[in-house]
Amino acid sequence: MKQTWLILGASSAMARAFARNVASEGADVFLAGRDMDDLERMATDCKLRGADTAEALRFDCRKPAGFGTIYERLALQDGALNVAVFVGSMPEQSEIDADPSLIDATVMDSFTGPARFLQGFAPMMEARGSGTVVGVGSVAGDRGRIGNYVYGAAKAGFATYLAGLRNRLTRAGGHVVTVKPGFVDTAMTWGLPGLFLVASPDDVARDILKAVKKQRNTIYTPFFWRYIMLIITHIPEMIFKKMSV
Ligand SMILES: NC(=O)c1ccc[n+]([C@@H]2O[C@H](COP(=O)([O-])OP(=O)(O)OC[C@H]3O[C@@H](n4cnc5c(N)ncnc54)[C@H](OP(=O)(O)O)[C@@H]3O)[C@@H](O)[C@H]2O)c1
Is the pTM of this model over 0.85? Predict the structure, then answer.
């Protein structure tokens, strides 16, 4: 069956690597985001790699009035509609502590904006009885901690949303993969202190595609983050609340 991938937040280094991978498998690719020049260049690259169709689409998850144009364009595609969400923003926690209004934008970028988009897209997938949603969350959503608890809360909300969407789409022949990366070498983490075991965007993209093919429900990437988070989530709260992990 013809595969179409809509990639939201396509300028992310992880998204870029994922787009290249699906394009080289012959999928049609729609690159959605805010930097149209960058997305046009990526579309050209995806065509060279094997996509019959590769187009740039304007997408700002804070502006839901623009979602309809994307739904309408994707409705013209034959076959399975798939969507991968890489959108997210992570202001420093200290900035949010100083200006609590930043909470709204953080939650909108990392949870409610993508969820609102998916809520409108899901009926199109149900109607076709196929398709996969990839939602990129974060290990930060597994436990609130002093260094990024607003971003973590947004990612936790998104993970719960994705679990419910999986429950819904499964009964219509669709699937949802929740992706929880650890630290990845991208624009988001550039210059941040204290990172360890940093993965490359290419490795993460490869893990995601593998998870899509195997219809995995939730993956940690790289895989060892599952065990790191198992330990972190089992530290008793009376100890954890005094730690700075
Ligand atoms: N890097 C890590 O260590 C790490 C770890 C765990 C999870 N993640 C998650 O992985 C995903 C990709 O992040 P990244 O590390 O590749 O960082 P990134 O380059 O900052 O990617 C974030 C993407 O989200 C887009 N975006 C942000 N706000 C948006 C909005 N209002 N509307 C539309 N697009 C918006 C950005 O678009 P612009 O280019 O237009 O700003 C960018 O394409 C994010 O969801 C992030 O939370 C990252």
Answer: yes
Amino acid at 90: M
Instruction: Check pLDDT > 90 for residue 155.
Output: yes
CA atoms within 13 A on the CB side of 243: 12
Compute the average pLDDT of residues 168-184.
97
Whose C-alpha lies nearest to ligand 1, atom 32?
60
Give which of 25, 24, 26, 22 is closest to 10, Cα–Cα.
Answer: 22
Ligand 1: which of 6, 59, 63, 86 to mutate, most ligand atoms within 8 Å of CB?
Answer: 86
């804070």: which residue's tokens? 62
> Average per-residue pLDDT in the chain?
97
88 Cβ below 6 A of ligand 1: yes
Q: Is 112 in the pocket of ligand 1 (CB under 6 A)?
A: no
Q: What is the pLDDT of residues 59-107, one digit of tens each?
A: 999 999 999 999 999 999 999 999 999 999 999 999 999 999 999 999 9
Rg of the chain (C-alpha set): 18
148 pocket-lining for ligand 1 (C-beta < 6 Å): no
CATH 2.60.40.1180 fits 3-240, yes or no: no
Under DSSP, is residue 147 helix (H, G, I), strand (E, B) or coil? coil
Residue 22 Cα, ligand 1 centroid: separation in angstroms?
19
Q: Quick one: which atom of ligand 1 is closest to the CA of 10? A: 43
